[in-house]
TrEMBL record:
Organism from which the protein derives: Streptosporangium roseum (strain ATCC 12428 / DSM 43021 / JCM 3005 / KCTC 9067 / NCIMB 10171 / NRRL 2505 / NI 9100)
Record's protein name: Glc operon transcriptional activator
Alphabetized Gene3D superfamilies for the sequence: GntR ligand-binding domain-like (1.20.120.530), Winged helix-like DNA-binding domain superfamily/Winged helix DNA-binding domain (1.10.10.10)
Keyword field: DNA-binding, Transcription, Transcription regulation
Family matches, as PANTHER family: GLUCONATE OPERON TRANSCRIPTIONAL REPRESSOR, TRANSCRIPTIONAL REGULATOR, GNTR FAMILY
Length: 247
């Protein structure tokens, strides 16, 4: 195999996975990919930087620097004034961010994480249906209402994480909840910005899950949890899934 052949390129360290990217570059890759895949539309305004930072689990300074870099690359643009902020460029430069390739190379990792989450999610939902305290069910209902009112994907994502961690806590098994949290956070490192309309649909599943917990129906709870996680393969990681099939 000669240097510079496609196979050499595929095995290059830069493509070895998202773990090799620093925080700044993973944020750039995730936003650029969401734009490339049409999950963020041309002209769409991005949430406030602080919210993006929280949703993508990086510092605010890192998020700000990533947005500046994406503006320089022609993916985003800054607009001043009342309707200003950071927006997706009207004709975003496509596929220019090299780190997207590294992100896509992590597709196998993402599928393994979804498998692990699927198993844990079904188990936690099943147990939470038996063990959830009244106040925990109330908390989950409040989180569903917050997600219904969330004004953008970043805010939704923050409540979504809290929702799932609350279900895990409701099992009454702290060490299992801890294990679940590790998988969830690792998976969230690959989270892509997503249209709010899609997220609202997924919130219907959250509401169904809370009803199953309140009804003390473990089978129903596990079934809803299963559908919720399996949907990630088709939606949250769209594109990554495509790549995974090719690999
Ligand atoms: Zn969810």
């Amino acid at each position: 195999m000669t240097p510079g052949s496609p196979l050499t390129a595929l095995r290059a360290p830069a493509l070895a996975g998202i773990r090799r990217l620093n925080a700044l570059d993973t944020v750039r890759a995730r936003i650029a990919m969401a734009v490339d895949l049409g999950l963020l539309q041309p002209g769409e305004r991005l949430p406030p930087t602080g919210e993006i930072a929280r949703a993508l689990d990086v510092g605010e300074m890192t998020a700000r620097r990533a947005l500046v870099a994406l503006c320089e690359e022609g993916m985003l643009e800054r607009r001043r004034g009342r309707t200003g902020g950071t927006l997706v460029a009207p004709r975003p430069a496509g596929g220019r961010v090299r780190e997207i390739a590294a992100y896509q190379a992590a597709a196998g990792d993402v599928h393994r994480l979804i498998d692990q989450r699927l198993l844990l999610e079904c188990g936690t939902a099943h147990l939470a249906a038996s063990n959830a305290a009244r106040h925990q069910i109330g908390e989950l209902e409040a989180l569903v209402a917050r997600m219904d009112q969330a004004s953008d994907w970043a805010e939704f994502h923050t409540w979504d994480e809290r929702f799932h961690m609350t279900v895990a806590a409701a099992t009454g098994l702290p060490s299992a909840a801890e294990q679940y949290g590790l998988v969830l956070r690792e998976l969230y490192r690959h989270y892509l910005p997503c249209p709010l309309s899609h997220l609202r649909e997924s919130n219907c599943e959250h509401a169904e899950l809370v009803t199953a917990l309140a009804d003390r129906d473990p089978l129903k709870a596990a079934e809803v949890a299963r559908g919720h996680v399996e949907a990630l393969r088709r939606t949250m990681f769209v594109g990554l899934a495509e790549h995974g099939r090719d690999a």
